[in-house]
Amino acid sequence: MSNAVNEYKPATRTGHIANFVDSRVGMSGIVKEFGRKIFPDHWSFMFGEVALYCLIILILSGTYLTFFFNPTMDTVVYDGSYVPMHGVEMSGAYASSLNISFDVRGGLFMRQVHHWAALLFVVAIAVHMMRVFFTGAFRRPRELNWVVGGTLFVLAMAAGFTGYSLPDDVLSGNGLRIIDGVMKAIPLVGTYLSLFFFGGEFPGHMVIGRLYTLHIMIVPALLLLTVAIHLFMVVVHKHTQYPGPGRTEKNVVGFPVGPVYAAKAGGFFFIVFGILALLASTTTINAIWNYGPYDPSPVQAGTQPDWYIGWVDGALRLMPGAWPWHWQLELGGTWVFAVLLPMIPAAILLGLFFTWPWIERWVTRDNREHHILDRPRNAPFRTGAGVAGITWYAIMMMAASSDLIATHFHVAFNDVLYVLRFLFIFGPFITFEVTRRICLALQRKDRELVLHGVETGRVVQLPHGEYIEVHEPLDDYARYRLVSFNSPVYEPARPNAKGKVTQGEKVRGKISRLFFEDRVAPVTPAELEAAHQHHELEASKH
Amino acid sequence: MKALSQKRRHPFAAIALLAIALLLTGGLYAVATATNEAKAETGGAAYSADDIAEGEKLFNSNCATCHGTSAEGTDEGPSLIGVGAAAVDFQVGTGRMPMQMQGTQAQIKPGQFNEEQTQQLAAYVASLGSGPAIPEDEYLDVSEGDAANGAKVFLANCAMCHNAAGAGGALTRGKFAPTLMGVSEQHIYEAMDTGPQNMPVFNDANITPDEKRDVITYLKTLESNTTPGGFGLGSLGPVSEGLFIWTVGLAIVLGFTVWLTSRSA
Fold first, then answer.
1. How far apart are alpha carbons B164 and B157 in whole angstroms?
2. Tens digit of pLDDT for each residue in A495-524?
3. What local confidence, expressed as pLDDT, does residue B28 receive?
4. What kind of fold does domain B15-132 have according to CATH?
5. What ipTM describes this predicted complex?
6. A286-318, pLDDT tens digit by residue?
7. What is the distance in angstroms between the Cα of A463 and the nearest Cα belonging to chain B?
8. Phi, psi angle pair for A283, to nearest 5°
9. Does domain A36-296 have CATH number 3.30.750.24?
10. Which residue among A13, A294, A413, B181 is least crowded, i.e. fewest CB within 10 A of its CB?
């Protein structure tokens, strides 16, 4: 048997090179597999991509910054270009951050690209998560990928916070001081944890170097690993798609990666890069030179974390200080509830967030695979719950800027806090109910449209004198979108195999009723037929 | 010494110690304030009797309703005896006084009196009792000041309320620290010297006149240097940056996503 007979003989020089590579690494197999991968197109599917591109830009710009940043807390005397800091004693970290901003060629631009990219990174992740949640894309088989995505969100916050703390200015030092306070509030082990983290009493001489290691090595490595898992699972599960004619649970309608999607996505990377470069070259971000070198004594007006940490800071601000007691207990050490309690909302929010796919599966008893997305209005309870969660988050985030709300809207700072405290407790319930009602109303409107068509505004007088308005029926494509959706129904509590209705099952039944008792069912073919006959009857009567 | 140590458990020992401590701090305080007053009086002597008389007329027709007919203060406004010419020049010169309305804090509005009238009012109030005088020009000359030292003093003493970039900030119950951008050298100096509204007084023992000039120099440097990184977003820090990325940044990205997917399968 001779191989030579079957061997492919390329005709051109390029062919030779391509064949050389292909016969050694099997490129064509990979291209065949991934190049034919189909991705559906929709604007809302592109935010995960934005986040990915931001991450790449973060790594590129961050690498540039590492060439010039000096993560040391040793004291130096500044003698760079920024006059108001001349002769001021500061840490090497702050001095090198100032040098990056004023003396390194392109340094300030890179710093601003890096920081704007970090903000957009978390914005894109947040929008992407909202899209996945409100369309129900987290349902089987994607529950685990939802958790992986949530982990990415938390890692992004960790990456952001460790980076925010590096310049060692007053602003970032205040942020670290709050972290120190939260650590110390952890019962029993808190003090040890803080001493361990800071290498002694805050601020010590270690923490910038340690944060640097976390920021440029450990957190990015975890992020990249998690992104790889996230994307691998997207390939395994295939992409979800919105409902539409010809789209089923068994197919994906869209363009293949090669060449259309690869070109689009490659171009989109440069668009995102362009947007960030535009922002960075026109708009200041984190003017570290204003804050001065870190000194544990001052806290400046307008001290806030970057937006994605704001909600945790806001929870701390919302906590009543000394009322009705000092929120402190002596139980084998001091329990500082004024700092511990505000961490509970964060834990509740993240806990519900990570477990939601299982909560919904348990309530609906729906264990089928879902590749067709829901329109948010067709899952009123889920949409309401999502908006309630966002509201809670947003109220906490607003609380972090309570002082700026006060100065910019000319209201008293204390009143802002009172209003936000009220909204913190009642806001989510209000927005939940309002959103759910809006969803139900939209569903009813959809039914109305399908059954009676669009009002044309054309009023006709019939021969016997009656006036009617002509309704135009929807075309088939529009109607398909409005009637073909998955609509779970109320599942009452059922006995198990032993014939016993367990306590848990009763709870499930109650929650299921809460979810679905107001359900608006999609129009069935029979209803549609009846409606048409009714219309024809009306018409023929006259 | 032995006698003293034996008496340390005497019932009156604590009281005696307290009395000594109070005498000491009180004495030091008296010495410190005396140095301030000495300087103030030299500044206040420059006004003529005419100025004072004119100022009194203006005072009676515009200020006496709240501050009392001889500036002794009423329930509506504090006594002005001993506040000095600097306080008048600041409050009237920036338009805060006469107050637009009663409230937690006097708001800035276009000034009601011209420079001459303001000086006459200042002369009258300065004649009631010694207080901080209008600063001399040498302490307002920013070409003589040291911006780096000013930054140090400013960040240690002022940035807590006025924000690191002097953009202003919130205080409790509707009070606030205003922005320092666009405030004249003289008014900044007078504010430090007299502590208007809710601001503490930074007297000459606390921040020396030279240091006050340095602070003014730093603020003027901030004002004249356009922000190195582009638009400053109000120098308010992470909140305005977050708002910007969620509105402008996200809107631009959204626009592109809609454009890129406008021809979908």
1. 10
2. 888 888 888 889 998 988 888 888 888 888
3. 86
4. Cytochrome Bc1 Complex; Chain D, domain 2 (1.10.760)
5. 0.89
6. 999 989 899 888 888 888 999 999 999 999 999
7. 47
8. -130, 125
9. no
10. A13
